[in-house]
Amino acid sequence: MKTVEILHNPNAGEEEHTQKQLVKSIKAAGFKCRYLSTKTDDWKDAGKDAAFYIIAGGDGTIRKVAKSINCNETPNLPIAILPLGTANNIAQTMGLMQSTEAIINSWHTYHIKQVDTGTVTGYTKPLFFLEGFGYGIFPKLMQQMEPFDKVIDGAEERMQKALELLYSLILAAPAVDYTITIDNKDYSGKYLMAEVMNIQSIGPNLHLAPHADPGDGYLDVILITENQRGTLLAYVDQLRNNATDAVFSLHALAAQQVQISSSELYLHADDKLLIAEQPLTLDITLSESKLQFLITPATE
After folding, report:
1. Which domain holds residue 23?
2. Helix H segments across the chain?
């Protein structure tokens, strides 16, 4: 019987995702388990004699553990995801949006997927990202959402509010000058958004890089020009009106090395909003180390 460690964000999910219920469900599936809350510092001592971690939470919780592994603070064990967050962008990219019971049962026949992580240098300190890094509209959306995140409880309500704010930002935001080099090729110009993605979606399930594979050794770069404002606006309008067939039609650029210079001061690494003190020139690359995620054979 395999021993696993549950790293749980107790603030995520519904009532059926309490510590007691999670432990009960995982034990019922035939695993020995130890429980650690990510709201304490004890979880950083995880990994002793465990076969893999179970991260029960949203994208922010997964990022917290992934960064700790990347910094060699926590052993690099395989990561199983129980998606309990608002957007669950990482789980969606991994194809892990089945029921909790189905995901738990899949761990008996899992495969390991090697997953890339990104590094940004040129900031005050190197930045880690698992989902994406960027400038433009998205970090401004994060800033505008901060007061609402504290007062809106429901995941669907938060997503809807984010889409409404994003729609307004796209209408009003100016295109800004960027000096951008992607694998030694110049892509400088005026953009509404310059986003370097490692997974398929960010924020309120914006599938800006629907073909991204976080294990292929490439990043996906999304550059939205003034002429493409209408395309982005139409896509977000479909999402905020609950269209199930909304598709972002602009293609991403595959990249291994990206350099960005801009007068913009608002930027983000995953769900972390950052405000630079001065214009920066930043280098974005893939890290040498990889993470290990559990996936089922059907999602490979």
Report:
1. 3-108
2. 19-28, 59-70, 89-93, 100-106, 137-149, 155-172, 229-240
Scanning the structure block, which residue is given the tokens 């953009």?
Answer: 191
143-162 burial, b at 16+ Cβ within 10 Å, e below that, comes to: eebeeeeeebeebeebbbbb
Q: Cα torsion for 39, 96, 129, 10, to the nearest 10°?
A: -10
Three-state secondary-structure class, residue 256: coil
pLDDT tens for 46-57 read: 877 899 999 999
pTM: 0.94
SS3 content of the chain, % helix, strand, coil (to 5): 30, 30, 40
- Which alpha helices (H) appear in 136-212, and where do they start and end? 137-149, 155-172
Domain count, the chain: 2
Q: What is the pLDDT of residues 222-253, one digit of tens each?
A: 999 999 999 999 999 999 999 989 999 999 99
Q: Are 118 and 196 in contact (CB under 8 A)?
A: yes
Q: Report if residue 227 sits inside a domain.
A: yes
Separation CA 171–CA 167 (nearest Å): 6
Residue 272 within a domain: yes
113 within a domain of the structure (yes/no): no
199 pLDDT tier (thresholds 50, 70, 90)? very high
Q: How far apart are CA 46 and CA 55, in angstroms?
A: 12
Tracing tokens 């107790």 back to the chain, one arrives at: 10
CATH number at 198 reads 2.60.200.40
Q: Is 278 helix (H, G, I), strand (E, B) or coil?
A: coil
